[in-house]
Amino acid sequence: MNEFSGVKLALVNGSKVVGILRENNPDIMFSNCWDVAGGPRKGTESALQCAFREAYEECGLDLKPESIVWCQEYKDRGCNEPGGLFMVSSITGQQIDQIKLGARGQSFKLYELSGFLEMDNVVPFVKKRLLHYMER
Q1: Beta partners for residue 40, in sequence order
Q2: With 0-12 CB in 10 A as exposed, 13-18 as middle and 19+ as buried, what is 126?
Q3: Residue 79: what pLDDT?
Q4: C-alpha torsion sign, points 117, 123, 128, 129
Q5: What is the pTM of this model?
Q6: What CA–CA distance (Å, rounded) separates 11 from 109?
Q7: Are the C-beta atoms of 113 and 18 separated by less than 8 Å?
Q8: Handedness of CA 126, 43, 76, 63 (dihedral sign)
Q9: DSSP 3-state assignment of 100?
């Protein structure tokens, strides 16, 4: 796990997931699509440090290691399905109330996981990995 390139972190509360609407910018991958928190590794940070930094930068949440309920490593299959770690963090209703959108993204919304997976404008590899989590 020392060679990971980045982390995606789904923030879940029961059967719901926090979706983050990516910027509407044609210069970025998956422009104007729903996503979960995450991004590339910086320097030598650990997987948890990367995930928690992204959660703080994108949602203003300060998470603890015990909140991680699932983690899976994925191989790089190209720009449409990048490698890295996909984690799921269980968050409370109080934490949901504390979410503040960071500098990136247009908005956030709490979705039923099943509904999120049925939407057409969710980052495809995020949908696939959330489904793996749900099927565990």
Answers
A1: 6
A2: buried
A3: 80
A4: negative
A5: 0.94
A6: 11
A7: no
A8: negative
A9: coil
